[in-house]
Amino acid sequence: MKLTIYNNIESKDIEINSFKIVVVGEIYSGKYSFVNRICNRCFEETREFQYTDFKIGFFKNERNEFIKTQLWIDYRDQRFRNQRYYLLKDMHSMVFVYDITTKRTFDCIVNYLYPEYQDYILKQQPEHPPQLMVIGNKSDLRGQINSKQSVDTEEAREFANSIGALFFEVSAKDNINIDESAIELIKNLKKNFNNNINQPNNNNDDQSFFSNCIIN
User: I need a labelling partner for 210 at 20 to 30 A (CA). Which of 7, 92, 127, 193 fits?
Assistant: First the structure.
């Protein structure tokens, strides 16, 4: 399936799927910039922070059929911690974003964000674990920083492999690997959807969960 990213659709296009994607990471890791590149096809140097951001992205195939993505950015404001359940509920994918120039942002994923995700999934969504992706942002700065402060590519790749996640290093600023990573994620979501919806023994919970992906 060949996919292209669009920031708008035409009346002739047919919506076939909708997926909910939650994007998490430490402050200044580039979560908003990554999502903004996908949905608005642009880069913003500065951004005000709030509890969540929500954007819509469209991926269209050669038959003018499109997949809609709801991308939720979680800024992890502790004032709204009790509301995070509703943000994560029925998500189809979680994307962990770190800044490759700052090791702390990667360690946060390993030590806090991923364990928190595991705890949620085991309690709320054990039968349908979301597709995971690990994104190393700001790859354009790799050659301009002290290597001791940066995140080693192979270390990050090994972590992603160990949790069954897709892995990409990207630059939201220079638009490097943004489309490739987003399209690969959507292809995997579509594949997972097709595999699960075609299983003969799906129960009512399965049908309810995957009905969120189907456009009638």
Answer: 7
